[in-house]
Amino acid sequence: MLLVKALEDKILSEGSVLPGNVLKVNGFLNHRLDVPFIMEMGKEIARLFEGCGVNKILTIETSGIPIAFAAAQEMSLPVIFAKKHKSKNLSDDVYSVEIESFTHGNTYTAVVDKAFLNEGDNILIVDDFLAIGNAVKGLIKMIESAKATTAGVAVAIEKGFQNGGDALRQKGIRVEALALVDSMDDSSVTFRK
Ligand code: G4P
User: Fold this and answer.
1) Coil, helix or strand at residue 157
2) I need a labelling partner for 115 at 20 to 30 A (CA). Which of 13, 24, 26, 30 fits?
């Protein structure tokens, strides 16, 4: 797949590995956005989930939003992003989950207005990174609370060695990673083939 190879090359040439198993890709994904490249990732996600009957995309702020937006543009679907910050313009009628961030060592509450997740929806979860998978598990909980179904999970980069993706696959959830990192240290990044 051309896009997969391009993303792997970009990770190798522009990314760096920080202590704590963190892959830094601020130059195109987490701080500065490479818009044409993100739009290409969206096209690939759309291709992977074509014909699956998805009617909404769900992500979580912040860095999931651009990729979800790109996929949604290609699939002509709306995007809902779970909010991590309380805001006055949010109703009280929300789905709410506690998410423990392994990377950041904190726990936060993510919420989605109940008006935007409905019974019968078939939802594609999109995010930038999949590590231990707590964020995705939280989003799946909200989808279940709404009596909707999860069509699958699409992420730009999965860190396979943190096992979140494989745990979801074992539960029968379709998980697609555009780049799947098998191992990394400060001098190399290896991808699963
Ligand atoms: P999870 O996403 O699988 O649940 O794992 P974890 O709790 O460890 O991730 C917490 C946050 O750190 C998430 O972003 C996730 O996307 C990000 N993250 C995890 N591993 C990496 C990594 O190796 N590199 C980078 N760049 N990010 C990583 P977040 O807290 O939701 O932040 P943001 O979306 O607001 O930027």
Assistant:
1) strand
2) 30
Is 163 touching ligand 1 by the criterion CB < 6 Å? no
pTM of the predicted model as reported, rounded to 2 decimal places: 0.96
- Quickly tell me which residue has 């998980």 as its tokens: 175
Phi, psi values for residue 90, rounded to 5° = -110, 140
Domains with residue ranges and CATH for the chain: 2-182 (3.40.50.2020)
Of 183, 191, 193, 129, the residue nearest 156 (C-alpha): 129
Q: Which atom of ligand 1 is nearest to the CA of 131?
A: 3
Query: For a pLDDT cut of 70, what percent of the chain falls above it?
Result: 100
Return the best residue to mutate from 33, 129, 185 for the ligand 1 pocket (most ligand atoms within 8 A of CB). Answer: 129
Average pLDDT over the chain reads 96
Structure tokens at 115: 């008006």
Q: In this structure, are residues 90 and 111 in contact, taking their beta carbons and an 8 Å threshold?
A: yes
Alpha carbons 109 and 175: distance in angstroms, whole number:
24
